[in-house]
Specification:
Blueprint: H1 5-18, E1 30-34, E2 40-45, H2 54-59, E3 71-76, H3 88-95, E4 99-104, H4 114-120, E5 124-126, H5 131-137, H6 139-147, E6 151-159, H7 177-189, E7 192-196, H8 197-203, E8 222-226, E9 245-247, H9 251-260, E10 265-270, H10 271-280, E11 286-292, E12 317-325, E13 328-335
Parallel strand pairs: 3-4, 4-5, 6-10, 6-11, 7-8, 7-10, 8-9
Antiparallel strand pairs: 1-2, 1-3, 11-13, 12-13
Helix pairs in contact: 3-4
Length: about 350
């Protein structure tokens, strides 16, 4: 049986509910319970580590036996493990749920298997409903689970001819105010922001997420400095509310340490050399390229050597979005899946 219209609607609601939960070590998950007639009877979301999972939160709203024969709509496969809370698959079985519809499989071998357990107990299970939307919601958490490192977004601003600065090194401002405001909004969505020592020494960035009036936004990324050169004692980053961390340049070790610190989303903003290093090491999951309608010429390219020597070695990307921000364009892209054209 394929998912019904009511189940699709409930999944959209579950995805919206999931966003109410905190983003962090645990995934954001939402759940909606439908009566056998297809009406919403309860809903819930995961509110953070140690709290009931979304399915249990929804079940807790009902009287004993009220979920018998119901359909559970969940954004992530119900878990099948004992952690701070019990297995959601077991809770659904005990409640008498007859059908479970979820968006994406749990990639964590320690908690997956809920769908199989439910099917073995006679519960009808349907997966893959609004999977693309759920993947977009959980992209950073899924990257950590599958690759063991944070999700990495590489951002740069450039002119139409691909330059990041003028011949004298000046680069502020290539793009206009709307593009800069968009960058700060995206900084606030990240757990960490990365620059190299070259950018740090040249521009002395504060690495904060700020509103248009210059005030700090409520959410701030952890500043990360890549490189061995010392950070000056009067550097603006030293006044960041979260402090900063510095790594000598080993991207693998840096990303592993950031993961261990609970960082799931990294925003790379640190100049042509740093951006190129993430591309060269194939650890970039998303690209944000802000393009200004200007020409600079010269040698100050927005991206340095990425190890490509022939057209056949080109790093192919899939363009996922194009947005106009004032006079500038924002191009959003991700690495193309091998075999795509």
């Amino acid at each position: 049986m394929t998912a019904t219209t009511a189940e699709h609607d409930a999944m959209r609601r579950a995805l919206a509910l999931a966003l109410r939960g905190p983003r962090g070590v645990n995934p954001q998950v939402g759940a909606v319970l439908l009566s056998p007639e297809g009406h919403v009877i309860a809903e819930g979301w995961h509110r953070g580590a140690g709290t009931p999972h979304a399915e249990v939160a929804a079940l807790s709203q009902l009287e004993s036996g009220a979920a018998r024969g119901a359909t559970a709509i969940v954004t992530l496969e119900p878990c099948n493990h004992h952690g701070r809370t019990g297995p959601c698959a077991e809770a659904l079985l005990e409640a008498g749920v007859a059908r479970v519809v979820y968006a994406i499989d749990d990639p964590n071998p320690g908690s997956s298997g809920g769908a199989e357990r439910l099917r073995a107990a006679g519960v009808e299970v349907e997966s893959g409903v609004l999977a693309d939307e759920a993947h977009a919601l959980l992209d950073s958490w899924l990257t950590v689970q599958r690759l063991g490192r944070p999700h990495v977004t590489v951002k740069w601003a450039q002119t139409l001819d691909g330059r990041a600065a003028a011949a004298d090194g000046t680069s502020q401002w290539i793009t206009g105010a709307p593009a800069r405001a968009d960058v700060h909004r995206r900084r606030a969505q990240a757990d960490a922001i990365v620059v190299g020592t070259g950018t740090l020494l040249a521009d002395d960035p504060a690495l904060t997420a700020r509103a248009e009036d210059g005030s700090l936004l409520p959410a701030q990324p952890l500043p990360v400095v890549l490189g061995e050169r010392a950070v000056p004692g009067d550097a603006a980053v030293r006044r960041h509310p979260l402090g900063f961390v510095q790594y000598p340049g080993d991207l693998g070790a840096a990303l592993t340490d950031l993961r261990d610190r609970g960082v799931h989303r990294v925003f790379v903003e640190g100049g042509p050399a740093v951006a190129a290093s993430f591309v060269r090491e194939r650890v970039a999951d998303e690209f944000l390229v802000y393009v200004a309608p200007a020409l600079l010429g010269g040698d100050m390219l927005a991206l340095r050597d990425i190890g490509v020597t022939s057209i056949g070695e080109a790093v192919r990307l899939t363009l996922t979005d194009v947005e106009r921000l004032g006079d500038d364009l924002l191009l959003v892209a991700s690495p193309a899946i091998e075999g795509d054209t």
